[in-house]
Amino acid sequence: MANCTINECDKPVKAKQMCSMHHQRWRRHGDPVVTKVRQSAEPTACKWVNCDRLTVSKGFCSKHYYIYRMQNVQKVQVNS
Q: Any long-range contacts for 73-80 (C-beta under 8 Å, 24+ apart)?
């Protein structure tokens, strides 16, 4: 089995003569050797009415995100 053609990479080839990691980087960024670090968003308050906790996902704190997921709510009353 062939190895990745990128310098100092000994992983097996998955596609286009690159390992899966370098192939994904090429697909996402156009360059197989680029490494980009994800930036964290600034912490914000939960968008549920009268809740001042910090968000965890989709603009809700952990408690309200759980409720949102369990009830599969389509519209949520939002603080303006």
A: 76/47, 76/48, 77/48, 77/49, 78/47, 78/49, 79/45, 79/47, 79/48, 79/49, 79/50
Cβ contacts of 77 within 8 Å, gap of 6 or more: 48, 49
As a whole number of Å, the end-to-end CA separation of the chain is: 58
Burial of 65 (0-12, 13-18, 19+ CB in 10 A): middle
CA distance 62 to 45: 12
pTM equals 0.48
Other beta carbons within 10 angstroms of residue 18's beta carbon come to 21
Looking at the DSSP bridge assignments, the partners of residue 3 are 12
**What is the reported pLDDT for 21?**
94
Above 80 in pLDDT, residue 78? Answer: no
